[in-house]
Amino acid sequence: MAGPVLLSLGDGPAFWGLPASTFLPVFAVLVVLPVLVRTLGSRLLKRRDGGPHRPPGPVELGFLAGGPARATDAALAGLLEQGRVRVSSSGRLSTTGGRAPADDLTGAVWTSVQFGRGTWTVHEVRTEMLGRAEFEQLRDRLTGEGLLVERGPMRVVRRLAMVLLVAVVVIAFVTFPHGTFVLAVLPAGLLWTLTDRPARGPARTTTGDAALRAASVTPGGAARDVALGGLSRYPDAGIAQALLSPPPPQKPRRRWGSGSSSGGAYGYGCGSSGSSCGSSSCGGSSCGGGSSCGGGGCGGGGGD
């Protein structure tokens, strides 16, 4: 069987015996098809009706807006606001009290901060929280409520689009000469790249998008502000700046361990243990406990 004849501008025989005037429009459709499948398929999955659901809390809003990292930030903001966690001027986090919050995910964030023993920043806490089972449970719950797109069908759509893209490349390689092969697949590559924008957080349904919009116009505390806009939205500008401090060069500890809490100053904006605060303030709120910090700390906008 004779091999395929290279395309020409006329109506002579082409690939599979089709004339160029027929094959070229078909190939143009194939070039666009992978992007159409991925884009339209994702939009159809997003239109799932979630039905009635309870308003998402700050941690749930954080997961909808930015995935596990934003959910961790929202939980941390809530702990700071409640005075359960303190932050130093260098961004070091420490816990107050001896019992974790009842909520599973918030409790896991509090325990992670406690394990850091006053040396971890938000960057280490995020790393420690990656892959936690609490996030999978949260994702499943939000998916069941119709706020997130199911991952199974979404993976099927993306794989189908990728298979179609590979098919376009193979057809172009077999059909076109070496000099024009790149030109033939270039439109497909450009379309794929231009439309392949990284998603902000998990794939939300239209119901999930509506929940975020409703939360953005509803008054809330620090946890909700951070859930919707990140740590820079923390109401106390000093604390926000401390939380956004660059990560330290040391690697985070990845194993849970025991040990007494290390010494040092955990109060926001205060010096080391025993240093004098004087009349200075900590992140917009004055240090308590007299003229000496004594290792004490300023809360995150609220006290016990």
From TrEMBL:
Compositionally biased intervals (Low complexity): 273-284
Signal peptide, first to last residue: none
Extent of Gly residues compositional bias: 260-272, 285-304
Chain ranges passing through the membrane: 14-37, 160-192
InterPro entries: Ser/Gly_Cys_C_dom (IPR026467)
Residues covered by region (Disordered): 242-304
Keyword vocabulary terms for this entry: Membrane, Transmembrane, Transmembrane helix
NCBIfam families: near_uncomplex
Name listed for the protein in its UniProt record: TIGR04222 domain-containing membrane protein
Organism this protein belongs to: Amycolatopsis deserti
